[in-house]
Amino acid sequence: MGVRLRAFRAVMAGAVAAAVTAVAGCGGEVSTATPRTRPLQVGLVYDIGGRGDQSYNDAAAAGVDEAKRNLKGMRVREVEAAPGEPATRKVERVRALAAAGYDPIIAVGYSYAPALARIAPRFPRTRFAIVDEPTVKGPNITNLLFASEQGSFLMGAAAAMKSRTGDVGFVGGNPSPLVRKFEVGYVQGVKHVNPRVRIRIAYLTGPHDLNGFYRPDKAEKVARRMYRAGADVVYQVAGASGAGVFRAANDAGAWAIGVDYDQAKSADPAVRHVIMTSMIKRIDVAVYDYLAGVADHTVTSGPVVYDLRRGGVDYSLTGGHIDDIQPRLELLKQEIIHGRVKVSPG
Question: Domain 148-281+316-337 classified CATH 3.30.450.20?
Answer without folding.
Answer: no
